[in-house]
Design goal:
Growth Hormone, Chain: A, 20 helices, globular, mainly alpha, Alpha-Beta Plaits, 2 domains, TM_effector, 612 residues
């Protein structure tokens, strides 16, 4: 079961599923039969329907690219098929992550799948009528890519909801296998269909392939929407971006992904041109090339977890990146199908090795409360890099030649592997214990209410507090008493505490030296609202965060004192009970005597102050 995308984007989606399995395995998931998740009825039907849908999706990609080849479009235009499929993630990836975090995912998928089916049907009818143009084809491909961008985060998050925890790793592996089986079958089937029935029939089969998945989703009973605490849209978006910005390991992984995906996508964008111009293949031959990539990816889905256990994350990514770079350079320089096919099998294996391992490592460092939003940022980097890489490759292919462009891209990928040897990632990803939600012990709120709706009236001795605004900005102040000998160690720990606070919701963070009380250091941080601060305590703080804060807290010679301040809204207009202060009575003024005609008019002193 995997969301549909196009070209390299769909291949990456399959790797995402493998990465999920890797993440779960890293957390020590129990080893059970590889096919055990198929015993879960709803997963089995979704997996079968998803396989059929992905076969149709791969047929659509081949049909679109070959349509442009037959139109004698330039390499730059042909490469835009990958760009049109991936670019929507740049626009909708982050909002889709927020939507997938809190929405009814089943209804979301039904709606998006329906839109995709209608779009694919329009594509088939327009092509059959002879009204299809390259611009219209790219526009409809962009529409299909937009739908994929909206549904992808929800699709990734739905597997843990339908299979037992111990089967999640195997379910993710099966999802990846389904995507890569579709990649092996879809392109070859598309080539045969184009040769015998034409491109419009390929697009029609893609439209029909949505029917099975739609039927399964509509008939699905017993689905329970996520019960996560809902947040305002923009607040939830900021929280997800804030987490990624202050999670150093996650940022490093995203950078590595970007450095790989931009040059690596040259092969996916320009392979149709290589098949036509260098290997003199027709649509059947092009489908055979994509099938070879699919076979390699299927083998990689089974082999990569074992290699990762043996080599570690950094060495595996470096090795598979180097293999991919050398492989696509070989494909670019080869003019013989007998050489190209086995090399593409190795390239498919290397592709799944890099993308799946990076994604699995990312998932192992993303806590549950922000996982869907964090993965949407991952998709933003992945699909955005895909769109950028396809655009650059197309432009270079037109100007300096396709073979030179792909071979040069392979050299750049090899350089990223060398760079990784000097800047290694973490060798393991086993962080499941540290990512489990744990209560925040170092800054406990005063008498936490039972829920956000109860946050407006928290009792306080001797009387009741004034009403508390749950959406009011919250300032948390923590005072530590630190010995001079412990100060360097404490400051080093507080650097990590700052990152922890910011990851979980702090908007500002400052450390102060109390000049009036020597030996005391004051930490102050603000959170967007009291509700969000409660979320810090209840769901956002992980075991890893708690370990850091406890280590800093242990250096304090006395128990750290904590204060919570919640902002008060100052009224714009005075309350009716508030009256103006009384003014002093004005003494009566003596009557002015009548002025005689022969006397000058007296000057009356002004009661106003003169302006200096």
């Amino acid at each position: 079961m995997a969301a549909r995308a196009g070209g390299a984007a769909r291949a990456a989606a399959g790797a995402v599923a493998t990465g999920g399995a890797a993440a779960q395995a890293a957390g020590g998931a129990a080893r059970v039969g590889a096919l055990a998740p198929l015993g879960v009825r709803i997963f089995r039907w979704l997996w079968i329907a998803g396989l059929i849908s992905n076969i149709g999706g791969w047929m659509q990609t081949v049909g679109a690219q070959w349509f442009l080849v037959e139109q004698h479009a330039s390499p730059a235009v042909i490469a835009l098929v990958s760009t049109a499929s991936a670019a929507p993630v740049l626009l909708f990836g982050i909002p889709a992550g927020v939507l997938g975090e809190f929405a009814n995912r089943r209804l979301l998928l039904i709606g998006v799948q329906s839109i995709q089916a209608l779009t694919a049907l329009a594509l088939a009818l327009l092509t059959a009528a002879g009204a299809m143009t390259p611009v219209l084809l790219l526009a409809l491909t962009f529409a299909l890519g937009t739908a994929s961008a909206v549904q992808l985060p929800a699709y990734q998050a739905i597997v843990p909801e339908i299979v037992p925890t111990k089967l999640i790793a195997n379910a993710a592996s099966l999802s990846s296998i389904g995507v890569n089986v579709a990649r092996a079958i879809g392109p070859a089937l598309a080539g045969l269909t184009i040769a015998s029935l034409g491109i419009p029939f390929v697009f029609a089969l893609n439209a029909a392939s949505f029917a099975g998945l739609l039927l399964v989703l509509v008939l699905w009973r017993g689905y329970r929407p996520p019960k996560a605490d809902r947040e305002p849209f923009f607040s939830a978006t900021r929280a997800g971006l804030r987490y990624v910005a202050h999670a150093g390991v996650v940022r490093r992984l995203y950078l590595q992904l970007l450095l790989f995906i931009v040059p690596a996508n040259a092969l996916w964008a320009l392979l149709p041109v290589l098949a036509d111009a260098r290997l003199n293949l027709d649509s059947n031959g092009y489908g055979l090339l994509l099938a070879a990539l699919g076979v390699g990816s299927i083998g990689g889905a089974f082999l990569i977890p074992k290699l990762r256990d043996a080599w570690g994350t950094s060495r595996l990514i470096a090795a598979t990146s180097a293999l991919y770079g050398l492989g696509i350079a070989g494909v670019a320089l080869s003019d013989t199908l007998l050489i190209t096919l086995p090399v593409l099998v190795l390239v498919g294996l290397a592709w799944i090795g890099v993308i799946a391992t990076l994604n699995g490592t990312v998932q192992s460092f993303l806590p549950a409360w922000v996982r869907t939003r964090g993965l949407s940022v991952y998709q933003l980097v992945l699909f955005g890099g895909t769109a950028l890489g396809a655009t650059v490759a197309g432009a270079l292919g037109t100007s300096i030649g396709v073979a030179v462009t792909v071979a040069g891209a392979g050299g750049v990928v090899v350089l990223t592997a060398v760079w990784l040897l000097f800047r290694p990632l973490l060798p393991t990803t086993g962080k499941s214990r540290a990512l489990a939600p744990m209560p925040l012990t170092d800054v406990p709120p005063v008498e936490l209410p039972a829920g956000p709706d109860d946050a407006e009236a928290v009792p306080d001795a001797p009387g009741d507090r004034p009403p508390l605004d749950p959406d009011g900005s919250t300032l948390v102040i923590v005072r530590y008493e630190i010995a001079d000998t412990d100060r360097p160690r404490f400051l080093e720990l507080m650097r990590r505490v700052e990152q922890s606070r910011r990851r979980t919701g702090a908007r500002t963070w400052t450390l102060y030296d109390d000049r009036e009380h020597p030996g005391f250091i004051v930490e102050a941080f603000t959170v967007g609202s009291w509700r969000e601060h409660l979320s810090q305590h209840r769901s956002r703080t992980t075991g890893y965060d708690t370990e850091i804060s406890d280590a800093a807290r242990a250096l304090s010679r006395s128990a750290p004192a904590v204060d919570h301040l919640v902002s008060i809204a100052v009224p714009r207009h005075p309350h009716p009970s508030v009256t103006a202060p009384p003014t002093a009575p004005v003494p009566p003024t003596a009557p002015v005597p009548p002025i005689a005609p022969d006397r000058p008019t007296p000057t009356v002193p002004s009661t106003k102050e003169e302006t200096p």
